[in-house]
Design brief:
With 251 residues, the chain is of the alpha+beta class. It has one domain: Cyclic phosphodiesterase (Cyclic Phosphodiesterase, Chain: A, Alpha-Beta Complex), CATH 3.90.1140.10. It contains seven helices and eleven strands. Strands 1-9-4-5-8 form a five-stranded antiparallel sheet. A four-stranded antiparallel sheet has the order 3-2-10-11. A two-stranded antiparallel sheet has the order 6-7. A hairpin with a 6-residue loop joins strand 4 (143-152) and strand 5 (159-166). Helix 5 (131-140) packs antiparallel against helix 6 (174-181).
């Protein structure tokens, strides 16, 4: 990852899914952790939490863990050193809901922060990425990206993210070009999950979070050029038990 100041054109909100995927806050109401979060995330924060869901029929989760799932991701190393990121974290630490953020997990995960490009490529064993896909990624070359924040979605409500905006390459979303290179469907939401809540928010806390999300929506956090991707395997959705199987070059 190289931090850059050049201004390649980026894909905007009108072509991405962030606006329609936001948490819908209700005036005067709190924000409850949703069932997906209580199943996949909360057991990793506090397995004894009364709202943690240890397992659910039809899913592979067991106290937040599952067989290894392999995905192709964009690493965002160096993000914690970005001045805008530090300013955002200072504000989060002073927020009314700060005591409900699992700060210990933020520190544990810093070395593996990423946005997923192609999720769930395989389960149990790393996928075979053929020569044609590798060649297509290499020919694509480094890609300009920008992180903005803050974001809370309508899925996994309880996790707070930064949003990734990709370069427009020859009129197309550059991440779509990567996805097509691997024969995968295109997607329009790429987030870096960083902060996790350990409790529901009351009405005042939810209002504070909603205001903060609005205030930070258009603020750039970090603009950089990605020259590599990680093939990452993880046994939980917070990548606490994970490995970087391979680094694929975008050169």
């Amino acid at each position: 990852m190289t931090i850059v100041t050049t201004q390649a054109e980026l894909i905007g909100d009108d072509e991405l899914a962030y606006l329609r995927s936001r948490t819908a806050f209700v005036a005067g109401a709190g924000m409850a952790l949703d069932d997906g979060y209580r199943l996949a995330h909360l057991p990793l924060i506090d397995p004894h939490h009364p709202k943690a869901i240890a397992r659910k029929d039809g899913t592979h989760y067991e106290n937040g863990r599952h067989p290894p799932i392999y995905s192709l991701v964009v690493p965002t190393l160096g993000l914690p050193e970005a001045p805008a990121y530090q300013a955002l974290e200072r504000e989060l630490r002073q927020a009314p809901f700060a005591a409900k953020i699992a700060w210990n997990l933020v520190a544990q995960r810093q070395a593996k922060l990423h946005a997923t490009v192609c999720g769930s490529l395989s389960v149990g064993a790393p996928p075979a990425i053929g020569p044609a896909a590798r060649d297509a990624l290499s020919r694509l070359g480094p890609v300009a990206l920008e992180l903005r924040g803050l974001f809370s979605g309508n899925v996994n409500r309880g996790r707070l993210y930064l949003r990734l905006y990709p370069e427009r390459r020859d009129g197309q979303n550059a991440l779509h070009l990567m996805q097509r290179a691997l024969g995968r469907p295109t997607s329009d939401l790429y987030v870096v999950g960083i902060w996790n809540l350990s409790e529901d928010l009351d009405a005042a806390e939810a209002a504070a979070l909603a205001a903060m999300l609005d205030r930070w929506w258009d603020r750039p956090i970090l603009r950089f050029t990605a020259d590599r991707l990680w093939l990452m395997g993880a046994r939980d959705d917070l990548v606490l038990d994970s490995e970087i199987v391979e680094t694929l070059s975008l050169r």
